[in-house]
């Protein structure tokens, strides 16, 4: 009797919709719980091992950066957003016909009672949501496996969903209810465009921003010289991950905390130290960076080691076409930077890990200056 009453109250299609709603809505909190229960201990063990290899003494601990309280708001935000969106789209067939007009779904066509445009807007927003959710789910799973699931990931997922839906809605307004007799109807492609917008909303916006700066603001400060793409080994995914921490250019990376990067990113100590070394040299050399790389000087560590004489610097400058006094100034700045001395010791410790199986036992084993690490 209970089963019959339940099936009469909820139909088979409704069970399918409810299952999809629960599946999508519960994904984010389940991912966060898995991270705390399984992955956080492994990340802490790796971090402590890295500190021992580098000989860094610090009070920073992984557990202090990844506390449950920091996840409540971002996870709750994206979970509520997913529940609301998938519920609205799953049951759109039951209420869409009652919408006679909507400022949100018709934009500048508001007041015209364009039912077709309302349906079209709901469809593209649905596809944009699915694209954004699938991309975010893939990113969260990848970050979960890499033990790099920071609270900002969930904020980014929520913002991506909202941004993708708005951009897809704008596309819907642009074409209106136009029909096409072409071989490929642009309107019929809206679903694909909306889905791809959900997957890559930032790239579309960045393209628009680049066009604006090219034609309307050519005199805007050019940060290309200190772009993270100037750092060898940094890909688009690496750049986006560093951007989450507020590291938008080489200067930010050059002054970033080593221990914070070790805690909050999945990148190893050797890779981070190499990037910081390149970033510092880029900040000093700027336009001359390519010339130094031709001479085999990729990082400040390459310039720092060897106690190069003025004659050696002059030979380097002549061989790659760099102004000799400029190279001498760069070299003096590098040698006077106490932080570079500390980082050089860290970098040497990573490449030749003498402390691989034991942590420092006395103050003599620690670096002279840990300010660059902390």
Shape: elongated
Task: List low-pLDDT spans.
Answer: 1-9, 179-184, 355-371
Number of helices: 19
Radius of gyration: 27 Å
Number of domains: 2
Average predicted local confidence, pLDDT: 80
Listing every helix as H and every strand as E from the N terminus to the C terminus, the arrangement reads HHHHHHHHHHHHHHHHHHH
Secondary-structure content class: mainly alpha
What structural keywords apply?
single chain; 374 residues; mainly alpha; 2 domains; 19 helices; elongated; disordered N terminus
Summary, kept brief:
The chain is mainly alpha-helical and 374 residues long.
Describe this structure in words.
The protein has 374 residues and is an all-alpha fold. The chain folds into 2 domains: 2-215, no CATH class; 224-365, no CATH class. Helices cover 68% and strands 0% of the residues. The protein has 19 helices and no strands. The protein has helices at 2-9, 12-54, 62-65, 69-90, 92-95, 103-106, 115-145, 151-175, 190-199, 201-215, 236-244, 250-254, 258-264, 269-285, 289-294, 300-304, 310-320, 324-336, 338-351. The longest helix is centred in the first third of the chain and has 43 residues, at 12-54. The termini are far apart. 32% of the residues are buried.
């Amino acid at each position: 009797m209970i089963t019959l009453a339940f099936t009469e109250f909820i139909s088979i299609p409704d069970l399918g919709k409810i299952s999809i709603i629960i599946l999508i809505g519960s994904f984010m909190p389940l991912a966060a719980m898995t991270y705390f229960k399984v992955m956080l201990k492994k990340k802490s063990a790796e971090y402590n091992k890295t500190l021992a290899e580098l000989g860094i003494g610090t009070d920073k601990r992984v557990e202090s950066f990844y506390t449950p309280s920091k996840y409540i708001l971002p996870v709750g935000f994206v979970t509520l957003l997913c529940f609301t969106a998938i519920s609205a789209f799953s049951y759109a067939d039951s209420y869409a016909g009652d919408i006679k007009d909507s400022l949100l779904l018709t934009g500048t066509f508001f007041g015209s009672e364009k039912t077709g445009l309302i349906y079209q807007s709901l469809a593209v927003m649905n596809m944009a949501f699915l694209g954004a959710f699938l991309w975010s789910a893939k990113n969260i799973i990848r970050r979960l496996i890499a033990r790099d699931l920071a609270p900002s990931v969930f904020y980014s997922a929520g913002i991506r969903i909202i941004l993708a839906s708005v951009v897809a809605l704008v596309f819907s307004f642009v074409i209106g209810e136009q029909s096409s007799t072409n071989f490929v109807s642009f309107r019929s492609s809206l679903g694909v465009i909306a889905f791809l917008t959900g997957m890559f909303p930032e790239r579309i916006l960045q393209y628009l921003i680049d066009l604006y700066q090219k034609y309307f603001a050519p005199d805007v400060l050019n940060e290309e010289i200190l772009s993270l793409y100037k750092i060898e080994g940094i890909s688009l995914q690496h750049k986006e991950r560093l951007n989450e921490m507020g590291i938008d250019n080489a200067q930010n990376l050059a002054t970033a905390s080593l221990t914070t990067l070790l805690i909050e990113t999945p990148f190893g100590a050797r890779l981070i130290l190499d990037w910081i070394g390149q970033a510092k040299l880029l900040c000093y050399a700027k336009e001359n960076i390519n010339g130094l790389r031709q001479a085999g000087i990729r990082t400040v560590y390459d310039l720092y080691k060897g106690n190069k004489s003025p004659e050696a610097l002059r030979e380097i400058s002549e061989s790659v076409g760099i102004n000799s006094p400029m190279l001498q100034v760069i070299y003096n700045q590098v040698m006077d930077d106490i932080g570079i001395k500390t980082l050089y010791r860290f970098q040497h410790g990573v490449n030749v890990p003498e402390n691989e199986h034991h942590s420092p036992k006395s103050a003599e084993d620690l670096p002279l200056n840990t300010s660059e690490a902390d």
